Amino acid sequence: MPSHRTMQAIVLDTFGGPQVLRLCETPRPAPGAGEVLVRHTAIGVNFHDCYVRSGLYRTLPLPGIPGIEATGVVEALGSGVAGLAVGQRVGWVSGRYGGYATHRVMPAAEAIRLPDSLDDADLAATLMKALTVSVLVSRAHVVQPGQTVLVHAAAGGVGQLLCNWCRHLGATVIGTVGTRAKAAVAEAAGAHHIILYREEDFVARVQQITGGAGVAAVYDAVGKDTFAGSLASLAFEGTLVNYGQASGPVAALTPADLAVRSLTLVRPIVFHYLRDADRLADLSSRVFDAFAAGVIRPIAPLRLPLAEAAAAHEVLESQRSPGGVVLLP
């Protein structure tokens, strides 16, 4: 067991498969000026973590501790910190990494105060996804009543929240899924139309549903396998919001590929929208208001011990996740 001077962490030394994630005992950091030490209670596991581990994203200097979101309790305050107290529940989402550990030092300005009504593990599985959806529907593309939007992977964690939120905003939602079981999940999340992409051509089906007009926006985190079809599904002046690449990187394209119908391509990274305290406060308040109003619901995640980080990645990459996976320190 770690002492008060050490902590347990999953360390990434080299890029590769899930087996490269190893549990270590490392020094526990102390907070400096403007920082807090957070003891984690639940750690979110995301596809971003898989991309970092595989080397597709080379944004974590090695050796390093992956993980971009968690919930926990403030355990110590650095000098000059105001507005937070020891024992306070907080969450965080950050591209600074360090989540796969029992503790993390972080800037106090990045700590998100959590409502008492939401469970730590549910929030750890949902917070970044919900912040992402807040960006997707209000910044990357502003969803308007009467629009029709296409949501790929509609039964996934982000996909379910997107369906909920877009429907609440008055849009008609078309969701793509891979199985009939996932179709039921997407329908329960608010999708008006379901496309089983393994059984039918989603582009042709979108054209049928929209009477040949296409959709105002496509939300695509699949990447390589769906990108061309997503462009083809758009209406004139439509927007393709490509926010992930679960099937692999997208091939290069030219402005002429967008000129066919005056299309817009957006590639948002949620961290860029959280880069100052005011933006973080605005987006997180939107999320907690949406939870309180029942617009979106927290994801009930698969819960695994911190030591089983490799198994968590295997669950995500094999598409067996219930929508969220968390590690418990």
Question: What's this, in brief?
Answer:
The chain has 329 residues and is of the alpha/beta class. It is built from 9 helices and 15 strands. The chain folds into 2 domains: 6-119 and 298-328, Medium-chain alcohol dehydrogenases, catalytic domain (Quinone Oxidoreductase, Chain A, domain 1), CATH 3.90.180; 128-268, Rossmann fold (3-Layer(aba) Sandwich), CATH 3.40.50.
Sheet-strand content, in percent, reads 25-35%
Shape by Cα distribution: globular
Q: Helix count?
A: 9
Task: Work out the radius of gyration.
Answer: 20 Å
| DSSP, total strands | 15
Show unreliable segments. Answer: none
Mean pLDDT level: 95
Estimate nothing, just give the exact number of structural domains: 2
Structural class by helix and strand composition: alpha/beta
Organism: Gemmobacter megaterium
Keywords: NADP, Oxidoreductase
GO cellular component, one term: cytosol
Protein name: NADPH2:quinone reductase
Describe the protein.
This protein has helices spanning 47-54, 120-140, 157-168, 180-188, 202-209, 227-232, 255-259, 277-293, 309-317, and strands at residues 6-12, 21-27, 35-45, 69-77, 89-93, 103-107, 112-113, 148-151, 172-177, 193-196, 215-220, 234-242, 264-266, 302-305, 325-328. It has 329 residues and is α/β, with parallel strands linked by helices. Strand 14 (302-305), helix 9 (309-317) and strand 15 (325-328) form a beta-alpha-beta unit. The mean pLDDT is 95. Helix 2 (120-140) crosses helix 3 (157-168) and helix 2 crosses helix 8. The chain is globular and about 65 Å long.
